[in-house]
Write a structure and sequence with these properties.
It is a single chain. This protein is α+β, with helices and mostly antiparallel strands and 225 residues long. It has a domain at 32-128: Immunoglobulin-like. It has helices at 5-29, 143-147, 161-165, 180-188, 194-224, and strands at 36-43, 46-53, 60-68, 74-76, 81-84, 90-95, 103-110, 119-122, 127-128. The strands form two sheets. Strands 3, 4, 5, 7, 8 and 9 form a six-stranded antiparallel β-sheet that branches. The chain has a three-stranded antiparallel β-sheet with strand order 1-2-6, with no helix packed on it. The longest helix has 31 residues, at 194-224. The radius of gyration is 63 Å and the shape is rod-shaped.
């Protein structure tokens, strides 16, 4: 069976098309820095830098985070972390008590060959933290509030000056005072013997009067004789 020139041309076009298709597929499945993203987050008042890998090829990658200073000095944040991405996305978290408006550089190294990585770049742009930190400071009480203790209710009301100077309860102010004589008689008990003493005094007066009368009569009789 002989192969004609036309058949050769058809086979050549098909092979070229297949090569282009495989090349495009390989490019689509290759790891790319654009598939990585990073952001600063807060969780329960604690800060963190979260990196997301959406590499559908499943290429292993190493993530490293650095804190950048205004003087150009970079400080590593934690330890480098390994991640294998998916189309849905896989995240790695770096615990970091970041300050407001801080800048972090996130570097990605991807590929199975460490000497010849597929990706060796920084995520662009750098991560800039929000203007407000994760933990809000508590309000400081004013000087007047801190120096003035709260007022306490007294257990019982304090009597006023007029109430304290008034007569004690149970003694009516308009009650008549007892007579002096009544109180003396009650104390000595003389009122119980008054009738007896008066009778004896009367008898003595009568007896004395009779003695005087008879004495004067007898004196008159003696003078006539």
């Amino acid at each position: 069976m002989s192969i004609t020139r036309r058949s050769v041309q058809i086979l050549g076009v098909a092979a070229a098309s297949s090569a282009l298709a495989l090349s495009a597929a390989g490019s689509a499945l290759a790891c790319n820095i654009s598939e990585f993203s990073a952001e600063a987050k807060c969780d329960a008042g604690k800060g963190s830098i979260v990196v997301t890998d959406k590499d559908g090829s499943g290429t292993p990658a190493t993530i490293t985070v650095f804190l950048k200073s205004s003087a150009g000095v970079e400080t590593p944040v934690g330890q480098p972390q390994e991640v294998t991405g998916t189309r849905e996305g896989v995240t790695v978290t770096f615990n970091e008590d970041w300050k407001p408006n801080a800048v972090y550089r996130v570097h990605v190294t991807a590929g199975r060959n460490k000497d010849h990585p597929i990706v060796d770049k920084d995520i662009s742009p750098d991560v800039t933290t929000p203007a407000e930190g994760c933990s809000k400071p508590k309000p400081t009480p004013s000087a007047s509030e801190s120096s003035t203790p709260p007022a306490k209710e007294s257990a019982s009301p304090t009597p006023s000056a007029s109430e304290s100077s008034s007569a004690p309860a149970g003694t009516p102010s308009n009650a008549p005072s007892p007579a002096a004589g009544d109180s003396n008689l009650a104390e000595t008990g003389a009122n119980s013997n008054t009738g007896l003493i008066a009778g004896i005094a009367g008898a003595l007066v009568v007896v004395g009067g009779g003695a005087v009368f008879f004495g004067m009569r007898r004196r008159g009789a003696n003078s006539k004789s």
